[in-house]
Specification:
The protein is of the alpha/beta class and about 350 residues long. Helix content is about 45%, strand content about 15%.
């Protein structure tokens, strides 16, 4: 049945005077059964693409909105994935964009709650909302697990990315240790022996793994073991700037710096320039993550690429498997990293 636009608008006007439109009214206007209408609006099989498009067009025209909470209470799926993250870092923002794309590719939508800072937890109202409307939740960089435990007690599936201290949940991560080892080997192969390191926020397992790789490779490759070459950072651009200033102030400064993430590398580049030096002529610089901004820096940043799109797809697949079967994998999913050589690394000056 093909509904003329005028008829749909007239029907919508009548409905607007009384109450919100129902799925039954969508089905009646489309000339299909309630089951067919339900399958169409919930992106379930059993409806042709042409008929689904027609039903969705009618639903949109009359202002029908699916009641996600009611769907879940009735034992169905809402096809909504919740995400909890701190969006103030480029890494997390890029990853959330990837999760959204991966979710839409499998017929799901994404609901994001942005944590205001690492010391806070989502309010109970947010936890309740996620429990009511989301099939499952993906949590990025959780600093504390108490609210995740509360969510899990509500029997909502949870997957973490870069799990930190919450490895009891199914998790997806990049191979941080071997990625950092790649960075140090790259600088060593260029001829650098005095390499500075700007740590990340070591409350996170990813930061600790990168630091451990730096210490191990420094020993294995016979690099300068001066502890002053390690400057504490926090994964922020400001933290990278301050840490690089400390490295620049050393009587014997490093010929290269490995920053534990790209945001800190950007801050370090500013500090190097303010010290009257250039990258890579005076100091080579390498980051970690390969955020979108890395290739746009001047000069473009050599870095270790985390497979953000692959991590997002893996997290979505893992969560949907957990939703369907209720059984998480026995081990975390760890994805390989890749050295991306651009223009901020070069052999040291003679």
């Amino acid at each position: 049945m093909q509904v003329e636009p005028d008829n749909v608008e007239g029907t919508a006007a009548v409905m607007a005077q009384s109450r919100g439109p129902t799925l039954a009214e969508v089905a009646r206007i489309a000339g299909v059964s309630l089951m067919t209408a339900s399958r169409a609006v919930n992106n379930r099989p059993g409806v042709s693409d042409e008929k689904r498009e027609e039903i969705l067009g009618i639903a949109d025209a009359i202002g029908y909105v699916a009641n996600r909470a009611a769907q879940k209470l009735s034992g169905g799926r809402t096809h909504v994935i919740g995400v909890i993250a701190q969006l103030h870092t480029p890494f997390t923002s890029d990853l959330v964009l990837g999760i959204g794309s991966a979710a839409r590719a499998v017929g799901h939508e994404m609901l994001v709650y942005s944590l205001p800072d690492e010391g806070r937890r989502p309010p109970d109202s947010v936890v309740d909302l996620l429990h009511q409307v989301a099939d499952g939740v993906i949590v990025i960089l959780p600093y504390a697990s108490d609210y995740l435990t509360n969510l899990s007690r509500s029997h909502i599936p949870i997957v973490t990315i870069e799990a930190g201290e919450t490895a009891e949940f199914p998790t997806v991560a990049a191979d941080n240790y071997h990625g950092a080892a790649q960075a140090i080997r790259h600088l060593h192969d260029l001829g650098h022996r005095r390499i500075g390191f700007i740590t990340g926020n070591e409350r996170l397992a990813s930061a600790r793994d990168r630091h451990r790789a730096f210490v191990d490779l420094r020993h294995q490759l016979g690099l300068d073991a001066d502890d002053d070459l390690v400057a504490m950072g926090d994964f922020t651009q400001r933290g990278g700037f301050v840490a690089a200033e400390r490295l620049m102030a050393l009587a014997s400064r490093p010929t290269a710096i490995f920053a534990a993430n790209d945001a800190q590398a950007l801050g370090a580049m500013t500090a190097i320039r303010q010290a009257g030096l250039s990258v890579p002529q005076d100091i080579s610089l390498i980051g970690f993550d390969d955020i979108l901004l890395a290739a746009q820096m001047h000069p473009p940043l050599t870095t270790i690429r985390q497979p953000l799109a692959q991590m997002a797809r893996a997290a979505i697949k893992l969560l949907l498997t957990l939703v369907a079967k209720g059984e998480p994998p026995a081990t975390p999913i760890t994805l390989p990293t890749q050295l991306i050589v651009r223009e901020t690394t070069a052999p040291p000056r003679a």
